[in-house]
Specification:
Blueprint lengths: L13 H6 L14 H6 L2 E3 L9 E3 L5 E2 L8 H8 L17 H44 L2
Antiparallel strand pairs: 1-2, 2-3
The structure holds zinc ion.
Length: about 140
Protein backbone atom coordinates (compact mmCIF):
# COMPACT_ATOMS: atom_id res chain seq x y z
CA UNK A 1 0.00 0.00 0.00
CA UNK A 2 1.34 3.41 -0.97
CA UNK A 3 1.85 5.73 2.04
CA UNK A 4 0.29 8.66 0.14
CA UNK A 5 -2.91 6.70 -0.40
CA UNK A 6 -5.94 7.94 1.56
CA UNK A 7 -6.62 4.41 2.74
CA UNK A 8 -3.34 4.50 4.57
CA UNK A 9 -4.79 6.85 7.18
CA UNK A 10 -6.46 3.88 8.82
CA UNK A 11 -3.00 2.66 9.86
CA UNK A 12 -3.14 5.26 12.61
CA UNK A 13 -5.32 2.75 14.42
CA UNK A 14 -3.87 -0.18 16.29
CA UNK A 15 -6.48 -2.71 15.14
CA UNK A 16 -5.74 -2.04 11.48
CA UNK A 17 -2.00 -2.38 11.99
CA UNK A 18 -2.52 -5.61 13.92
CA UNK A 19 -4.46 -7.08 10.99
CA UNK A 20 -1.37 -6.79 8.76
CA UNK A 21 0.58 -9.23 10.94
CA UNK A 22 -0.92 -12.36 9.47
CA UNK A 23 1.89 -14.87 8.99
CA UNK A 24 4.30 -12.96 11.25
CA UNK A 25 6.94 -15.50 12.31
CA UNK A 26 6.93 -14.54 16.01
CA UNK A 27 3.88 -15.34 18.01
CA UNK A 28 4.31 -17.02 21.36
CA UNK A 29 6.98 -16.82 24.05
CA UNK A 30 8.56 -13.72 22.64
CA UNK A 31 8.53 -9.95 22.96
CA UNK A 32 7.93 -9.05 19.33
CA UNK A 33 4.43 -10.48 19.09
CA UNK A 34 2.02 -9.02 16.51
CA UNK A 35 0.32 -7.13 19.35
CA UNK A 36 3.51 -5.47 20.54
CA UNK A 37 4.62 -4.76 16.98
CA UNK A 38 1.33 -3.06 16.15
CA UNK A 39 1.37 -1.13 19.42
CA UNK A 40 4.78 0.25 18.51
CA UNK A 41 3.42 1.57 15.18
CA UNK A 42 4.63 -1.20 12.91
CA UNK A 43 2.85 -2.79 10.01
CA UNK A 44 3.93 -6.07 8.47
CA UNK A 45 5.46 -5.60 5.02
CA UNK A 46 6.91 -9.00 4.11
CA UNK A 47 8.72 -9.68 0.86
CA UNK A 48 9.21 -13.03 -0.84
CA UNK A 49 12.58 -13.65 0.82
CA UNK A 50 12.05 -11.87 4.12
CA UNK A 51 8.89 -12.76 6.03
CA UNK A 52 9.88 -10.59 8.99
CA UNK A 53 10.04 -7.09 7.52
CA UNK A 54 8.06 -4.54 9.47
CA UNK A 55 7.72 -0.85 8.75
CA UNK A 56 6.54 2.02 10.89
CA UNK A 57 3.43 3.40 9.20
CA UNK A 58 4.49 6.87 10.29
CA UNK A 59 8.23 7.34 9.76
CA UNK A 60 8.40 4.49 7.22
CA UNK A 61 11.44 3.01 8.91
CA UNK A 62 11.80 -0.62 7.87
CA UNK A 63 13.32 -3.16 10.20
CA UNK A 64 14.04 -6.82 9.59
CA UNK A 65 16.05 -9.60 11.23
CA UNK A 66 13.89 -9.58 14.35
CA UNK A 67 14.85 -11.73 17.31
CA UNK A 68 12.20 -13.14 19.67
CA UNK A 69 13.44 -11.03 22.57
CA UNK A 70 13.45 -7.75 20.63
CA UNK A 71 11.21 -5.10 22.14
CA UNK A 72 9.40 -3.40 19.23
CA UNK A 73 9.03 -0.08 21.04
CA UNK A 74 12.70 0.06 22.02
CA UNK A 75 13.83 -1.00 18.55
CA UNK A 76 11.65 1.63 16.96
CA UNK A 77 12.99 4.39 19.22
CA UNK A 78 16.61 3.41 18.74
CA UNK A 79 16.41 3.13 14.93
CA UNK A 80 14.17 6.11 14.32
CA UNK A 81 14.50 8.57 17.17
CA UNK A 82 12.82 11.37 15.19
CA UNK A 83 9.57 9.45 14.71
CA UNK A 84 6.71 11.49 16.14
CA UNK A 85 4.40 8.55 16.47
CA UNK A 86 6.55 6.46 18.79
CA UNK A 87 7.09 9.43 21.09
CA UNK A 88 3.41 10.39 21.10
CA UNK A 89 2.17 10.91 24.63
CA UNK A 90 -1.51 10.47 23.80
CA UNK A 91 -3.55 7.82 22.09
CA UNK A 92 -4.47 8.64 18.50
CA UNK A 93 -8.12 8.61 19.53
CA UNK A 94 -7.44 11.37 22.06
CA UNK A 95 -5.76 13.81 19.71
CA UNK A 96 -7.46 17.07 18.80
CA UNK A 97 -8.08 17.75 15.13
CA UNK A 98 -5.29 20.31 15.17
CA UNK A 99 -2.85 17.89 16.75
CA UNK A 100 -3.80 15.27 14.23
CA UNK A 101 -3.17 17.57 11.27
CA UNK A 102 0.18 18.58 12.69
CA UNK A 103 1.05 14.93 12.95
CA UNK A 104 -0.08 14.30 9.39
CA UNK A 105 2.18 17.10 8.19
CA UNK A 106 5.14 15.46 9.90
CA UNK A 107 4.23 12.12 8.36
CA UNK A 108 4.21 13.69 4.90
CA UNK A 109 7.75 14.91 5.48
CA UNK A 110 8.86 11.33 6.09
CA UNK A 111 7.08 10.20 2.93
CA UNK A 112 8.64 12.92 0.80
CA UNK A 113 12.05 12.20 2.26
CA UNK A 114 11.77 8.53 1.51
CA UNK A 115 10.55 8.98 -2.05
CA UNK A 116 13.33 11.51 -2.74
CA UNK A 117 15.94 9.13 -1.43
CA UNK A 118 14.53 6.33 -3.55
CA UNK A 119 14.64 8.55 -6.64
CA UNK A 120 18.24 9.52 -5.91
CA UNK A 121 19.27 5.88 -5.47
CA UNK A 122 17.52 4.95 -8.71
CA UNK A 123 19.30 7.75 -10.55
CA UNK A 124 22.68 6.82 -9.11
CA UNK A 125 22.21 3.18 -10.07
CA UNK A 126 21.28 4.18 -13.60
CA UNK A 127 24.28 6.49 -13.81
CA UNK A 128 26.59 3.72 -12.61
CA UNK A 129 25.26 1.37 -15.27
CA UNK A 130 25.59 3.97 -18.00
CA UNK A 131 29.13 4.78 -16.91
CA UNK A 132 30.07 1.12 -17.10
CA UNK A 133 28.60 0.92 -20.60
CA UNK A 134 30.56 3.96 -21.74
CA UNK A 135 33.79 2.55 -20.35
CA UNK A 136 33.12 -0.77 -22.01
CA UNK A 137 32.50 0.92 -25.36
CA UNK A 138 35.60 3.07 -25.01
CA UNK A 139 37.77 0.06 -24.18
CA UNK A 140 36.38 -1.89 -27.10
CA UNK A 141 37.33 0.85 -29.50
CA UNK A 142 40.94 0.97 -28.46
ZN1 LIG B 1 8.20 5.47 13.30
Amino acid sequence: MEPFNEEYIKMYFYENRLKTFEGWPFDEDCTCTPENMAKAGFIHTPSENSPDIAMCFFCLKELEGWEPEDDPEKEHKSHSSSCHFISLKKKVEELTVEEFFKLQKERHKFIINKSCNEAITKFEDAAKLRRAEIIKTAMGEE
